[in-house]
Write a structure and sequence with these properties.
With 961 residues, this protein is an alpha+beta fold. Helix content is 18%, strand content 43%. The chain contains 17 helices and 44 strands.
Length: 961
């Protein structure tokens, strides 16, 4: 008798596979720790019978398993299609070459794929005869015939380098490069090509691969344990590609509706990744990924073009097309512009293909390749490839993103026929030129019927008039014209459960050897997680679940803070006092903790990573102990928010800065006080009750805010005399808590009661545009129209004043990565019968060498309270951001991400003497390591008299509250 005993790992894997093969719903039977039987006799017969039954059951299971795998193998071998390798004449593989399949016996739409990084391709096709087109940038397009009967047919291709012929160009001095007339026509027709497509449906295969090449030595040493856990749990390892594959069914309808349904997704880390930022981007648009397109109407301001030759290749319907190669040369290379090559089809002036590269704001190099194919006469980007490489914060990485489209439905806009000819009026003006009155109000179809040839200027006017008429028609149909994009994303419930056989039938681009290894590692990790047998204990992780339970209380949470998720809608949020240790000369050392209860009645998901609460309750309190004053202060608060409307009630005792905008954060003030003996924050005490309401009616175009506060306000002093800093600086002492001001002799005030009503209204001058994502309407943040804000404040009870101010702020682009920002404000106290220093108008000053906060509206050297006013004021801030100015004239400086700023800050009050700051700033002083820091040099002026020079290190990051 032979009895087979399995070790735990083999036994679990064996029964798990049998379980999958047989689709059992019950738990698998296992043999474990079979006792050694010492007594022989009657027990032997029983044991032998048991072993025979066990072996019989194993044989049956194995038979089913073998049958299952045989069936899978049969299905795999039954797949028919094409596979092969695309190489150049030297035998080198051509990665990501386009392979286009055209049916010769049916009217099926063109199908296609891309070769992988190893030059291999594979595509499933039904038996039949096909015409295969192989394309690669810089190489001659070739056609091959293939007949598929059974199995996978091998069809390799060798491409020869493209032979270009130069057009006859006069060489006399001053002659313009022929590239310019080609590009003028292509730019004039770019919007035409975008509007050509009425609607389409397509199956889209995307694959992205991201590989971390190197980590900083410090990170590898400090996070060695975490990196090992990441490799074990999430298949992350330096040098190993992280993959994501997606197959989706997409549809588009003019003017802005995109629908996407994910039918399959596979990721080597096990998580679903959203589509790339380049999804549905078009080089016919003025910008792509915040970079100026060579076909932008402003392209000639940013690019020079050179004609490199023309070649011919077979086009749609067997007709030969001519393609011109145009070199794209940026006037100043760097972020926001491309360089490379674009291929333009003669006569139609559409994009045939392109190969461009750019660099983003953090210095990562990005290359783009598009190959277009004719779909019903319209050249569409059916194969796209994006690659990126670079380093950030010491992490070096590389990655690529490829996209392949196969159209199942394609409808051309009948208003845009391809027989329109466009002429360059600078070379040869058309026989007839239309005026604005000839175009205004006329249907595009009628104008095209009367005239087939248009100048580039007339064509742009025609398209603009068409879009204007379409917008009016949408308004008449009661459509929301403020919506610029309507997207929806649906993920099939089976998307993450597709089998390998399913993927092999859908995958447009074969996996490389490294990618196959990455998937195998991910599958093995998944298998280990799946096959944990019931009742067994994982000794390596037996306590991890208990320790990491989000709602399990532990004493350590009292020190670190924690959020307990009570249920799907409610949470208890605790902020530890150790997270808010501060110091100032009024309170001494302080500890501040908070406890808040949050209940969301309904949550609407914008994406996997973002949610909006349609109805949210918050109730909680904040307590603060002041070691210097030896007392507690704190406040409670309750609020309710529904969509964009919020009402809040708060009350208690707390200390506030005289400037409610907190010109210096408590954290930064703690550092300046303890380390530099400079106590900049000036505080007073309020016992208060406050009711606040905010709302954004008219689809968020207007924001309204109002508050009513009753408070007893008290002046405070430093908690004791002779305070000692950590470092005793010469010629420095702690200043009193009473601010200095040039307008009044003293800022002292008695304890008093104040009832303050504060009303604010803000509005954009232009209507806000929206995007719709899965039915949720979202306001776009790129509304660059001016923002006007009006504020009215009324003081009552022991104070009596009326204050009114107006502000206009605006930011707009002046070029690539260049922007002009300004903010202008003016205000006055209409009534100043009785007010105290907390009621004054204060300004965003700064007296420390480190500058934080809004870079546009903050002064750099202005004393915090010297020019605060109780009368009237006017202030102006202008900040110009330059991609290319002084030292950024050097390409290398631009490529590493440095930017230059010029700024002017002005303040008028009765005592300020026209205070002015003029400065220069350099952003990104430590490129790719600390890119969010800047250094500035500032000059001070009063009444046109020079007062001094200062330097600042700044950041837009917020420290403290």
């Amino acid at each position: 008798m032979r009895l087979y005993l399995f070790n735990d790992t083999l036994r679990q894997r064996f029964w798990f596979r049998l379980h999958l093969a047989c689709n059992e719903s019950s738990q698998p039977f296992v043999v474990k720790n079979l006792p050694i039987i010492e007594k022989i006799g009657k027990t032997v017969r029983l044991m032998s019978t048991f072993a025979m039954l066990l072996q019989l059951r194993c044989l049956m299971k194995n038979a089913i398993l073998i049958l299952f795998f045989a069936l899978c193998s049969t299905l795999a071998s039954a797949q028919t299609g094409l596979r092969g390798t695309v190489k150049n004449a030297q035998g080198e593989a051509l990665p990501f070459a386009a392979v286009i399949v055209k049916g010769t016996e049916t009217s099926a739409r063109p199908n296609g794929t891309i070769t992988n990084a190893e030059g291999r391709y594979e595509i499933a096709l039904a038996p039949g005869k096909y015409e295969i087109v192989f394309q690669y940038l810089g190489f001659q397009t070739i056609k091959k015939s293939a007949e598929i009967t059974t199995g996978l047919t091998t069809l390799d291709a060798t491409l020869e380098e493209q032979a270009f012929r130069l057009a006859e160009v006069q060489t006399k001095a001053g002659n313009e490069d022929p590239a310019y007339t080609i590009m003028r026509r292509a730019i004039a027709k770019s919007r035409f090509h975008q509007l050509q497509v009425q609607r389409f449906k397509a199956r889209v295969y995307t694959k992205s691969s991201f590989t971390v090449i190197d980590l900083p030595n410090l990170a590898e040493m400090a996070f060695r344990k975490q990196l090992k856990e990441a490799e074990k749990e999430a298949n992350f390892k330096v040098g190993v590609p992280m993959l994501n594959e997606t197959v989706a069914e997409v549809s588009f309808t003019q003017p802005n509706t995109f629908r996407q349904r994910i039918i399959a997704n596979r990721n080597s880390q096990g998580d679903f990744l959203s589509p790339n930022q380049f999804y549905n981007a078009s080089f016919y648009s003025p910008t792509i990924a915040n970079t100026v397109s060579p076909l932008s109407p402003k392209a000639f301001a940013y690019y020079k073009f050179e004609y490199k030759g023309t070649f011919r290749e077979p086009g749609p319907d067997g007709k030969t097309v001519e393609v011109s190669k145009i070199q794209v040369i940026p006037r100043q290379y760097g972020e926001g512009v491309f360089r490379g090559t674009i291929y333009i089809l003669e006569n139609t002036w559409a994009i045939h293909s392109l190969q461009l590269e750019t660099v983003n704001t953090i210095g990562v190099s990005i290359s783009v390749r598009h190959v277009c194919s004719p779909i019903q006469g319209v050249w569409m980007p059916t194969n796209q490839r994006y690659e990126g490489k670079g380093s950030y914060l010491g992490v070096k990485a590389t990655g690529y993103y490829i996209r392949n489209l196969t159209f199942s439905e394609f409808v051309v806009n009948p208003a845009f026929v391809e027989d329109i000819e466009v002429t360059d009026e600078k070379k040869a003006p058309p026989a007839n030129t239309l005026s604005k009155s000839d175009i205004k109000g006329k249907p595009l179809d009628d104008l095209v019927k009367k005239q087939k040839e248009f100048s580039t200027k007339n064509l742009r006017q025609l398209v603009k008039e068409y879009e204007k008429q379409e917008k009016e028609a949408r308004k008449n149909r009661k459509e929301d014209v403020a919506v610029v994009r309507d997207d929806s994303l649906v993920i099939d419930s089976l998307a993450r459960r597709r089998s390998n056989v399913f993927w092999d039938s859908l995958r447009s681009v074969p996996l490389t050897t490294a990618e196959i290894k990455s998937y195998r590692k991910a599958d093995s990790l998944g298998l280990v997680r799946e096959i944990k047998a019931p009742g067994t204990v994982d000794t390596t992780r037996r306590d991890s679940t208990r320790k990491k339970s989000p709602n399990k209380f532990s004493p350590g949470q009292l020190l670190s803070g924690h959020t307990w998720q009570l249920n799907k809608h409610s949470a208890l949020i605790y902020t530890s006092p150790l997270a808010r240790i501060e110091y100032n000369t009024v309170e001494g050392y302080t500890l501040e903790g908070a406890l808040n209860f949050r209940h969301r009645a309904k949550v609407d998901s914008i994406s996997r990573f973002r949610q909006i609460a349609l109805g949210e309750w918050n109730l909680g309190g904040t307590g603060r102990y002041e070691f210097g004053r030896k007392q507690f202060v704190g406040y409670g608060q309750a609020s309710y928010q529904y969509k964009a409307t919020r009402i809040g009630l708060s009350g208690g005792r707390y200390l506030y800065q005289y400037n409610p905008d907190n010109p210096i954060s408590p954290f930064l003030n703690s550092l300046t006080t303890l380390l530099f003996e400079q106590n900049f924050a000036k505080l007073y005490q309020k016992d208060f009750l406050n009711l606040t309401v905010t709302a954004s009616p008219f689809r968020n175009r207007i924001t309204l805010a109002g508050s009513l506060e009753y408070a007893q306000r008290s002046e405070l002093t430093n908690y004791k005399e002779g305070l000692s800093p950590w470092i005793n600086w010469k010629n420095r002492v702690y200043t009193p808590n009473r601010p200095d001001n040039d307008e009044i002799t003293t800022t002292a005030f008695p304890t008093h009661n104040a009832l303050i009503m504060n009303l604010t209204a803000s509005a954009r001058l232009q209507a806000t545009q929206y995007t719709i994502r899965n039915g949720r309407r979202i306001a776009r943040r790129d509304n660059e129209s001016p923002l006007i804000t009006v504020n009215y404040r009324k003081g009552m009870a022991d104070v009596d004043y009326d204050f009114l101010q107006a502000t206009i702020s605006h930011s707009f682009e002046t070029g690539i990565r260049s922007k002009l920002n300004y903010q202008l404000s003016a205000g006055t106290f209409l009534n100043d019968r009785k007010l105290y220093f907390p009621d004054f108008k204060h300004f965003a000053g700064n007296q420390f060498f480190f500058q934080q906060g809004d870079v546009v509206s903050s002064f750099r050297l202005l004393p915090y309270y010297q020019y605060s006013t109780g009368q009237r004021f006017a202030e102006g801030h202008v900040l110009a951001e330059f991609r290319k100015f002084f030292i950024t004239q050097l390409t290398l400086v631009r490529l590493i991400g440095l930017k230059e700023n010029l700024f002017v800050h002005y303040l008028y009050t009765p005592s300020s003497q026209h205070y002015t700051e003029v400065g220069y700033g350099l952003d990104g002083i430590i490129p790719q390591v600390l890119p969010f820091f800047r250094i500035e040099v500032i000059s001070q002026w009063q009444d046109t008299t020079y007062k001094g020079l200062g330097f600042r290190i700044g950041t837009t990051l917020k420290f403290g509250r």
